Amino acid sequence: MKFPYLNMKFLRDRFKLYSIEMKKLLLLTMAIMMLTGGHLFSQEKIWSLEECIRYAIDHNITIKQQVLQTEMQKNSLDLAKLYLLPSINASLNHDYSFGRTLNYHDYKFVDHNTSFDNANVSGSITLFNGFINFNTIQKNKRELLASEQDLQNIKDNISLSIALAYLQILLNKELVIENDTQLQTTKQQIEKTRKMVDAGSVARGNLLQIEAQAAQEEVQLVTMKNQLDISYLTLTQMLELKTPEGFEIVMPLINVDTVSVITGKIDEIFNVAVQNRPEIKSAELKLESSKYDLKIARGGRSPRLTSNQSMGTSYNYVFHDTTNLSFSQQIRNFRNYGVGFSLAIPILNGWQVNKNISNTKLGIANSEYVLESAKKNLYKSIQQAYADAVAALKKYSASTEAVAYSEESFRYMQQKFDLSMVTPVDYNTAKTELLKAQSDRSQAKYEYIFKTKVLDFYKGLPLNLNK
After folding, report:
1. What is the pLDDT of residue 6?
2. Which helix (H) or strand (E) holds 149?
3. Contact 443, 387 (CB under 8 A)
4. Distance of CA 281 to the CA centre of its chain
């Protein structure tokens, strides 16, 4: 008995058929992906606040420019250190002479054409110059550290801006939902009123008024959606993304307790921030740098002691002279070495040193003002954020209570409207007041969240919406 699956021809035919079907399936899949723009198997990335901040820090142009500035400061520090090394230079000279010249064999002047070669290596090192090189190294160290703090300050400011833009999207989303909910309620009321008009229990004017209200709410909803789109655009531009298309953020569950308490006092937060904030550290380092500028300027009054060393040799060739020594002999015979010291004492240089000292003293005073101003601005920022957080919490608490009363009032008004006991104007007024109370509550909530995050940021805590 023969089995068809043991027949080789049968197997080849089945394989060919299988290959044709697989090709058809592959072509069909590719066609579907092309028609759907490749979205069939793609999944849009949902961005968290932490991911937005990390991405912005990695791609922000201002940060990249500050990174370059920091690298330049590092090069300046390396260059200041290299100034401590001796300078070494070599020179080679080749000259032709025509006419009378000195014969180096008998040291008599003769009429000959000659060629002369000279090789020399010289070096010098500064032994003392009023510690200018040392103070320059210390100054550049402070400037490098200050540049790093400036970089961190830029990152912090961008992080806060990203957080604000992120919360703006959350707020606008909430406002869209609230406006859409109100619109859906109005549409439901339109259907009820239409049935009552058809039944002859209410006047048609009531239906027209509610439909007009629905049209206004449609416009308001479109406005809220436009604001949401703009907030998406703002955040994606801050992230250096080409388009907000397909961009979506995580919607964390954020609850604010009306009995919340803002932890810490203004002075306590400031005392922590003044020790850790990069803008304060940068101002302090720049003040130290300006003090080294003064030491460098004062170094201009000191004598400068330099050591010089040299080593050389030469070769002289007289044309048509059979008594010329060989190249190697002359190189050995004319070798010479030298070492010397030079001392430069500044006496009068147009009062440049004194003026440099005077200017650096003014620079120190200015750096002190910059540091003082940075501390005052930090205190004012903390003070303002604290006051805004307290006010936002109070507003949120009052708005929450207003929403509760407005919801109860609207339910009562809706019941009376269903019984034709109030006019559409009264009904719409109650619904509008409810929407306003809800919007005020949402705005107060996100303002409170942002200001508390700013205060946490000054305390040294990372930006996080989950806490």
Report:
1. 43
2. helix 132-199
3. no
4. 18
